[in-house]
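Reopening: Protein meaA still failing for me.
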Amino acid sequence: MAEERRSAQKDGEQSVRDKPWMIRTYAGHSSAQASNALYRKNLAAGQTGLSVAFDLPTQTGYDADHALARGEVGKVGVPIGHIGDMQALFEGIPLDRMNTSMTINATAPWLLALYVATAERKGIARDKLSGTVQNDIIKEYLSRGTYIFPPQPSMKLIGDVIAFTYREIPKWNPVNVCSYHLQEAGATPQQELAFALATAQAVLDGVKAGGQVPEEDFPRVVGRISFFVNAGLRFITEMCKMRAFVRLWDEIARERYGVEEAKFRRFRYGVQVNSLGLTEQQPENNVYRILLEMLAVVLSKDARARAVQLPAWNEAMGLPRPWDQQWSIRLQQIVAYETDLLEYGDLFTGSPVVEAKVDELCAAACEELDRIERMGGAVAAVDNAYMKERLVEANAERLRRIESGEQTIVGVNAYAESEPSPLTTGADGSFLAVDPNDEAAQIESLHRWRAERDDAAATAALEALKTAAAEGRNIMEPSIQCAHAGVTTGEWGDALRQVYGEYRAPTGLGGVGGHAEAPVRMADVRQRVEEVSGRLGRRLKMLVGKPGLDGHSNGAEQIAVRARDAGFEVVYEGIRLTPAQIVGAALEEGVHVVGLSILSGSHVSLVQDVMQRLERQGLSDIPVIVGGIIPEEDAKAMKAAGVAAVYTPKDYDMTAIMAEVVDIVDRATREAA
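Support: Ran it again with your exact input. Result attached.
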């Protein structure tokens, strides 16, 4: 028996320790120069790859001086307006020895063109570059909201990037099918699996139909598809989800696309663990959450992530500082280098519990995939709002469970009593605040760039780009020429808007609603809505607005759903509205309250703009409420300026919020009478 135990132990060990996954942090803010300094610090701290966060104007194809960019420049990422910015971003970083991931989607062809042009100016050949552009537009329509063009031309642009990179940059991942943001929008594990795989199928089907890739090269294209996955706190379920991804992707590559070589059927994925579950209350608990979520994607060797980036403990409060990001890097390093995790084979092969859960997830995901396939695929399921409605519905159910206490969140709806945290007592508020002057500096730099470039060369390059797009040709080489000619991000975006047009995705509210949680409490709110509506002689009406470029619409959607459940008439027109459009809608619709949702950190300037416009229209008696990731000092300033209420992620009780909104409207209308 002892000999058998020794033999079994020996079978489980590996003769060679595995290499660790690529260690990253998602970073970028303020300016190219400031972000470059941050990248160098993180690389010196042991980070082994770069993951670039771009600001919202860059992601949506606007220059820093565009009206929609106001307040958004440098807030959630680095602003990149032209090749000069891209060169500054990577100054002193050897691009031929660096693996660079860029979280960019609608403008992915442009940012890749800038990256290639920057490398060429450094004398680096294209085939020496390695990295990833996210380039998954389907999930932008469903969750993040940084889309620009309609689905069909957007899918064609994805195909252009794929056809270009597999020939010119063979070590580049041209698309990173991103289920991460689906889970952030409330997706169940089955939905995350199905929607991501449906997206990958839509991408590959489009490439196949596009004719840019010969049939004999198609397996190589399949082999370059990568995924960016989320891992939540339900450890067993999340680990099994990764194994289900591996199994299902192998089957799709083999059966749908006829890929015979196993290496081209490999499920290649990176991960950022769940940010949705990070809490503003007792934020120190987030460290444990992040570690547990990370283990779900590294313990299972047969489905281990190839790259891991972790959020910081304070991201529910604001942007992490360099020290906060270093803490997340150290967590990865401890697991990779101090434990014996990488010395053993897969720990879960043969486990009946794991196999049963993987089977269950695969069956449910396949059922959902078949449903989407019958609709015509992922693009059709965007246009008919099917996937968006399912996400809004799933997120509403998640919030219902938290609000009712059915799902325990430590420090939020249970064990909320807490000692003061020394981590949150710093003079800087324990997070990084972007200097408002950085936006003005970026605009000034942009104007200087335009004044000093060769306008004739930029104009000619843009005309060549538009011609290529209009004729259906691949736009990558013309985009690279635009980069070299000094074209700006907004000019590239506007050129393609002229050819392809713009798009507004379905909001997904549809028939979602009618929740019966906490029936007594909601019945009380409904009764109050009826009373105030009766006094006013018409139904209470709420306008839910998303000013600026922030496309994270989860909060706005859930407020709209819950307000409708409470009996309000709700006006919600989706994302990316100017303050002028929001105030115009308030006037035209005759609303009783305006709710603004802003998660990008641009709340101060955008809320001030809305308030000033309401006053100029004689609507200052309409109360304004604001929700988002809003520091306490900013909340105080907005309330002093007349905002009726400010809600942050710690305000999870949606029914209580609705009760407060009714009281706010009641007081405001009585005072105005």
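The radius of gyration is 25 Å. If you still see a failure, please send the error message rather than a screenshot.
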